[in-house]
Amino acid sequence: MSDMFASAKSVLRRADHHITDLDSVIGSHALDKKYTYRAEHDSISGKYIHKIVFSSGFSDDISCIMFDAVNNLRASLDQMTYAVAMKHKPGRDPRAFHPFPFAGDLAHWPNKIRGLKNDIPSEIIAVFTSFKPYKGGNNILWALNEIANIKKHAILIPAAFGGAMISIPVTLSEEVGFEFARAPFFTGRDEVELFRTSNPETSAHVGFSGTIVIRHPAEIINGQPPVPFLQLMRLEVGLIFAKTEVACEQLGWT
């Protein structure tokens, strides 16, 4: 017998391809990104701001591949839910849309479930509910839906340098007026503030190693490294598929 989830699993495999591709692209950016060291006078504080300035911003390829991966993960869940609905009531209009239920938070989840009761067996609804696909329940699934929707309504999720490891000579920290930047402080996609000094003659040989992260207003998403974050999403989606298939087998849909 044919697999009722064959189409959904095909889309899921495409998501795997995008995640692998993203990992490769991010790796090449991290290795090839050129930067220069610069000290600039700040007229407000009177300090000299030492920073790393990159030769160019990140290509939108990173954001595009990330969106493609997330969109495939989201679409695979929608196709899985559609397959369940069609199996539950074979005579229904095949053009009907039966998306996987996501909610903004727990308070909105009951409405999502009520909208599915006529289309999805209670056993499958119980599986979906167990994953708590809403903010505050399963934040990974909530983030999946949030990122999948944003391009449709706004812009690409940007990628930028996030947490970094910086190597600076120890003797520099002994200077009077020396101030480390916060975190360090990333002033944009193309530069990183490292530290400030009061002495214009100060210079340093700086070793820098940084990571690429997601920029998003939601604290759950902001600062997350794209590939590990997508891998967590992929894990959750895979678990939903596995438990839904078990429930379908118990319903006799084999």
Number of domains: 1
- Unreliable sequence segments: none
Summed over residues and divided by their number, the pLDDT gives a mean of 82
Helix/strand class: alpha+beta
Helix content: 40-55%
- Terminal CA distance: 7 Å
Report the sheet with the most strands, covering strand number, pairing sense and barrel closure. Answer: 4 strands, antiparallel
Shape: elongated
Strand order of the largest sheet: 1-2-5-4
Q: What is the number of strand segments? A: 6
The proportion of strand residues reads 15-25%
Order of helices and strands: HEEHHHHEEEEH
The Rg value, from CA coordinates, equals 24 Å
Number of helices: 6
Keywords:
254 residues, alpha+beta, 6 helices, 43% helix, 19% strand
What does this structure look like?
The structure is a single chain. With 254 residues, the protein is α+β, with helices and mostly antiparallel strands. It has one domain. 43% of the residues lie in helices and 19% in strands. It is built from 6 helices and 6 strands. The protein has helices spanning 6-32, 61-88, 109-114, 122-130, 139-153, 226-250, and strands at 35-41, 48-54, 159-167, 179-188, 191-197, 207-214. A 4-stranded antiparallel β-sheet has the order 1-2-5-4, with no helix packed on it. Strand 1 and strand 2 form a beta hairpin. Helix 1 (6-32) packs antiparallel against helix 2, helix 2 packs across helix 5 (139-153) and helix 2 runs parallel beside helix 6 (226-250). The radius of gyration is 24 Å and the shape is elongated. The mean pLDDT is 82.
